[in-house]
Amino acid sequence: MSTIAVVGAGKIGEALLSGLLHGGRPAEELLFTERHPERAAELTRRYGVAAVDVAEAAKRADVLVVAVKPQDIDPVLDELAPLVGPDSLLVSLCAGLPTALYERRFVEGTPVVRVMPNTPMVVGAAMSAVSPGRYATREHVRTVSELLSCVGAVVEVPESQQDAVTALSGSGPAYFFYLVEAMIDAGILLGLPRAVAEQLIIQSAVGAAKMLAESDEHPVILREAVTSPAGTTINAIRELEKHGVRAALLAAIEAARDRSVELGKVHEEPERH
Questions:
Q1: Which of 92, 101, 197, 226 has a beta carbon 3.0–4.6 Å from 192's, enabling a disulfide?
Q2: Could you tell me the pTM of the whole model?
Q3: 219-238, pLDDT tens digit by residue?
Q4: 70 assigned ligand-binding residue
């Protein structure tokens, strides 16, 4: 079996470690890197997985999962570049960073798979989109998809669609949290205790998500089933349309896509003249 090293054990990195362990991967086949010694020690106590430095991770692992913030990628690549080659598989969980960035920095032929996960990974319910780089084979994609299936659902997309994925599902949980927050506030405004409003809205969100996942019906049909003529729901929908909520969501997701594009451009290779 291959050894997997998670480079950067923040929330997503830790969630992946936890998911792999729950999926049956032995702790002996996992490694992680972490800049802060106290957190490294805590994660080792919690999961029984060894903390190593970046050089040791590159030396021992067959699969390197880079899960650092995009702005922290350059020093990590500086450490990895002399140590990673075609015999390794590099998996990038860094928003906005293209596979070409890694391919420029590593030995030619190094396989890279780009992944956009999201934070529900911490409860085993992530949505992850994978895209192979220039040197990644179908076997590499299958390997990454199998790893990620331990922490949620996986879909493969062309890398040209990754900025859209980042905006839609990568940032998507924040949109739902924002909506739930507003609806809880509305419940308080209408006189409900906060705890009651939270229970009503959170369970409604869970139930609605379950219906969406398990029903073959389009969301429009499911919404219309709740919307009686001259009833309460249609009055609420009218106000949402009047205030441009749909248009605001479209604009917000476009803005997130544009920011993802910007993050990638920071690391584009400068043109030669």
A1: 197
A2: 0.89
A3: 999 999 999 999 999 999 99
A4: yes
